[in-house]
Structures are given as C-alpha cells and as structure tokens.
Design a protein that fits this description.
5-stranded parallel sheet, alpha/beta, about 40% helix, binds calcium ion, 4-stranded antiparallel sheet, single chain
C-alpha cells in the first residue's frame, strides 16, 4: 500500500485515478491546483505523485521544478494532453520520472506506478506481489507471462490486465463497469 498524491484539476480524471488506486489497495489524495500540489508533495507524506501539467495557479512543470529545487526526490509521473516530444523532454529534464499522455488506460498508469514504487523500494517488493497464483495458474507481473499446469499461455496485453484483475480479487464478482473502467480506461466509450 502506498500513499499517492494526485494533482489534477479535471474532477472526472482525478476521481477515476483515485478510485482505481483505492481498488488496488493504495491511499490516494487528490488536490486540484499547482500551489496545493507543491505543498502536499513537500509534506513528505507521499510515496509517489501523479502530476497534471495544465493546472490552475502554477503549471505542472513549475511545480516539478520547485519541488526538485527544494530537494524532494518523490517519484513523479506527469500526465498531460500535450503529447509532443518537446513536452516530454521538458518534463523529464525538469525531473519527472515518467510520463503519460492523455487519454490513457488505467492499466497503463498502474503499470508505471508499480514500476516507480518498485524502483523506490529497490526491489524489496513490499507493496506488490510480482507473482499471482490462483489454482495452479501463475501470472508473473514482471515479465507478464502466464503459466498453467499445461504450459505457458500467450495473452495479449489487455487479456493479461483482465486476468490480473480477476487474480487480484479471487472469488469476487466484478461488474462490467469495474472491468471497463479498470481495464479499458475512463474513455472506454
Ligand atoms: Ca488539467
């Protein structure tokens, strides 16, 4: 379980991310403007920050810049609609750890969050299980390989994410809504 700060002014996207993170067992906190995002990130309470670029008060690049110049090393994943190469480079140059262009699928964001948290805990794997096993079927989340008693199965990326969802909640019924929003993303129409 990780404390994750979401700085995003679009309520729909913020709540979509927060809901998904909660479902994965994390504790998300949402703020919707740049200055509050910077304050919260500097509080030292968080393991990771998801940071939008277009924000009221102060844009994401400036938040990141101030954060790094004040010595914070919190992992930051930038979210932005501006998916041009130059923005990516600006973001990574100013100290972001990763980058996601909107619209994105929740599963993709989760994969990146997982990777960043794992990097921080230096392979300790405290927050995540790398391998999920249900009734003799193994999902290796690191290599995305699936092994059954009959051998290895080939799954597409989406099939793997679906399988992961079921393996994380064995015995539970998941609604169509839950599957759509968690596997296909908030723009699943
Ligand atoms: Ca925005």
């Amino acid at each position: 379980m990780a404390q994750i700060l979401i700085v995003e002014d679009e309520a729909r996207i913020a709540s979509f991310i927060a809901k998904g993170l909660r479902a994965e067992g994390h504790q998300p906190q949402v703020v919707s403007d740049g200055p509050s995002g910077l304050d919260e990130a500097l509080s030292g309470h968080y393991d990771l920050m998801v940071l939008d670029i277009g924000l009221p008060g102060m844009d994401g690049f400036e938040v990141l810049d101030q954060l790094r110049s004040q010595g914070s090393r919190i992992p930051v994943i930038i979210l932005t609609a501006r998916d041009s190469v130059s923005d990516t480079v600006t973001g990574l140059d100013s100290g972001a750890d990763d980058y996601m262009a909107k619209p994105f699928r929740f599963a993709e964001l989760m994969a990146r969050i997982r990777l960043r948290l794992r990097t921080v805990s230096s392979g300790g794997g405290a927050s995540f299980e790398d391998e999920l096993v249900v009734q003799g079927i193994r999902l290796d989340r690191r290599t995305r390989r699936v092994t059954t008693p009959r051998g290895e199965e080939e799954l597409s990326a989406r099939e793997f994410t679906l399988a992961e969802m079921f393996f994380l909640t064995p015995g539970q019924v998941l609604t169509r809504e839950q599957l759509l929003s968690r596997v296909w993303g908030y723009d699943f129409d």
